[in-house]
Specification:
Helix content: 55-70%
Shape: globular
Strand order of the largest sheet: 1-2
Radius of gyration: 20 Å
Structural class: mainly alpha
Length: 310
């Protein structure tokens, strides 16, 4: 059964091209008109680039440090991820500690040693199984169990609750783990994010794809892959981009689109776009009350297709 709706091929191709153009601008942005050579390098970073570099840096140790993987390293990474990409775990006590323990246990390899490589391989096996390109291995089952678990959470109002799923924190951890390790032929690991989850069905409608319910991480992973495959078939830049997996690229696209939608259609303040611009651009944008030039094509795309993105 075709994943495409019964519409003219020309319409479908034109819409994919519009998405392709936005992704191309995202991957290879033109020099900013507000870039200032006199400023320090980080001041010309977008918020997204700064946080991405910081999180990736935490995953390079022990890869570049020469020491063994420890529970403390895993916990530190989780703290950094939660600090820079809010995952709501700060609303409970000992959540990150419990997640760190589960990840630590999943890092055990066949020789009884805890390594990043072991968990990376399991995460990759999980994705391949999810998208129908591999069997459900023991490693894939272990990753599935990470998302199925409810992690104990202690809060002021109730000393001990049953626990909650931690899809956001776990997916972000596995995403950056795979992005840093970059195993051969990997397509990455998806990030589960509320902004992306809300914009995804709207993009499916716009791209003339048939929606499927996302009731689990497995469903979510597969839906993102359907969109990736649909776009990538006519977007050669995906094959030349170094250092980013397809899941990383699609996450950036959907997250950027979702953030700009909140401002242009939902009338949220411009300050919510801080991660999409540099500090210099942010100051100019807030002072002028207008979108930064590189975000204007995104706003135009949303406004021109308001029926789908309202």
């Amino acid at each position: 059964m075709s994943l495409l709706r019964n519409v003219g091929v020309g319409v479908e191709v034109a819409r994919v091209k519009q998405i392709n153009d936005l992704i191309g601008d995202l991957l290879f942005p033109p020099p900013s008109v507000h870039s200032d050579a006199q400023q320090s390098e980080w001041e010309n970073y977008t918020g997204f680039k700064a946080t991405d570099r910081a999180i990736r840096g935490s995953f390079r140790c022990p890869l570049q440090c020469g020491g063994p993987l420890t529970w403390d390293i895993i916990f530190t990474r989780l703290v950094i991820i939660d600090s820079l990409w809010s995952t709501t775990t700060r609303m409970g006590f000992f959540v990150k500690e419990n997640v760190a323990t589960a990840l630590w246990n999943a890092c055990l390899d066949s020789n009884g040693v805890h390594t990043d490589a072991a968990l990376t391989a399991k995460a990759d096996e999980y994705v391949q199984w999810t998208i129908g390109k591999g069997a459900k291995t023991q490693g894939a089952a272990e990753v599935e169990d990470l998302f199925a678990q409810k992690y104990p959470c202690y809060v002021y109002s109730n000393q001990n609750i049953t626990g909650k799923h931690q899809w956001s924190l776990l997916s972000k951890y596995l995403h950056f783990l795979v992005e840093t390790q970059m195993p051969q032929n990997t397509i990455g690991f998806p990030i589960y994010d509320n902004i992306v989850a809300k914009i995804l069905p709207k993009v499916f409608d716009y791209a003339l794809l048939k929606r499927s319910k996302c009731q689990s991480i497995k469903d979510y992973t597969n839906s993102l892959h359907v969109l990736i495959h649909h776009i990538q078939t006519t977007h050669p830049v995906w094959d030349t981009q170094i250092g980013m997996t397809p899941y990383h690229i699609i996450d950036r696209f959907l997250w950027t689109l979702g953030k700009v939608r909140r401002v242009t259609i939902k009338n949220e303040p411009l300050t919510t776009l801080s991660y999409l611009v540099s500090q210099i651009e942010f100051k100019t944008m807030v002072t002028s009350g207008k979108l930064s030039p590189q975000l204007q094509p995104w706003a135009a795309f949303l406004q021109n297709n308001y029926t789908y993105f309202k």
